[in-house]
């Protein structure tokens, strides 16, 4: 299975909003509402920020939001803060009953 | 509070078998509410799904690894394990064990990860 497509890097200034895209196919992102987003700081395990396209787990800031249109899902972070600087990965269920991650996006807070 | 902890050799020789165990505390791997899985991350690279196992023993492997992977449960020890056969240097990675809730699409609890290096 091919990894979902994410931009390698995005950047923004504190207080700004950014969006990270995650493009798949109708056999994964477009076919199911099982898209999740993970934040990973260096040397740490990933942490889920959004699940099932647009749901936020308890304890995750409401500055994080998710959406999906067709075969592309998006993670939006508003009011950027220095602590948001990390790698972000999307993940989707697939028609093969397995899961696939995106290649990852490095977020830099300028 | 659920905790997952990976354990196993940090160094494996090429062509041999990588074996890791994930010990779960604070919850039962026999629950019908969850799947248990493995995800890996080569140094400096992205996450790669390896596979999941359900309490029934049903497994769901990454097609690209399926021929070399076995994930199994040991309910008596509340552990699940990963075996990756015929490893090469390309299998060097930090390996994470994680839990996924049945009927949902997210890995909600992760272990801290363990680096396995394939080298002679």
Q: How would you portray this structure in words?
A:
The complex is a heterodimer of chains A (110) and B (120). Chain A is built from no helices and nine strands. Chain A is mainly β and 110 residues long. In chain A, strands 1, 3, 4, 7, 8 and 9 form a six-stranded mixed beta sheet that branches. A three-stranded antiparallel beta sheet of chain A has the order 2-6-5, with no helix packed on it. In chain A, β7 and β8 (99-101) form a beta hairpin. Chain A is globular. Chain B is mostly beta strands and 120 residues long. Helices cover 0% and strands 52% of the residues of chain B. In chain B, a hairpin with a 5-residue loop joins β9 and β10 (107-110). The interface between A and B is medium-sized, with 29 and 23 residues.
Brief account:
Chain A is an all-beta fold and 110 residues long.
Topology:
The complex is a heterodimer of chains A (110) and B (120).
Chain A: E1 9-12, E2 18-23, E3 35-40, E4 47-50, E5 64-69, E6 72-77, E7 86-93, E8 99-101, E9 105-109
Parallel strand pairs in A: 1-9
Antiparallel strand pairs in A: 2-6, 3-4, 3-7, 5-6, 7-8, 7-9
Chain B: E1 3-7, E2 11-12, E3 18-25, E4 34-41, E5 48-54, E6 59-61, E7 69-74, E8 79-84, E9 93-101, E10 107-110, E11 114-118
Parallel strand pairs in B: 2-11
Antiparallel strand pairs in B: 1-3, 3-8, 4-5, 4-9, 5-6, 7-8, 9-10, 9-11
């Amino acid at each position: 299975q091919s990894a979902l497509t994410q931009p390698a890097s995005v950047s923004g200034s504190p207080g700004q909003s950014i969006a990270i895209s995650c493009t798949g196919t109708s056999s994964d992102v477009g076919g199911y509402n099982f898209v999740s987003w993970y934040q990973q700081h260096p040397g740490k395990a990933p942490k889920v920020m959004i699940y099932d396209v647009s749901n936020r787990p308890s304890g995750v800031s409401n500055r994080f939001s998710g959406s999906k249109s067709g075969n592309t899902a998006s993670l939006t972070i508003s009011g950027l803060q220095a602590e948001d600087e990390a790698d972000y990965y999307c993940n989707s269920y697939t028609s093969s009953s397995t899961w696939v991650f995106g290649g990852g996006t490095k977020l830099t807070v300028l | 509070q659920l905790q997952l902890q990976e354990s196993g050799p940090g160094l494996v020789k090429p062509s041999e078998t990588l074996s890791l165990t994930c010990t779960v505390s604070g919850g039962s791997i026999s629950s019908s509410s969850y799947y248990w899985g493995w995800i890996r991350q080569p140094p400096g690279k992205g996450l790669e799904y390896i596979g999941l196992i359900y309490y029934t023993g049903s497994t769901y492997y990454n097609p690209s690894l399926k021929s070399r992977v076995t994930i199994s449960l040991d309910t008596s020890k509340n552990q699940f394990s990963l075996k990756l056969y015929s490893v090469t240097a390309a299998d060097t990675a930090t390996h994470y064990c994680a839990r996924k809730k049945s009927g949902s699409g997210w890995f909600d609890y992760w272990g801290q990860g363990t680096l396995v290096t394939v080298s002679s």
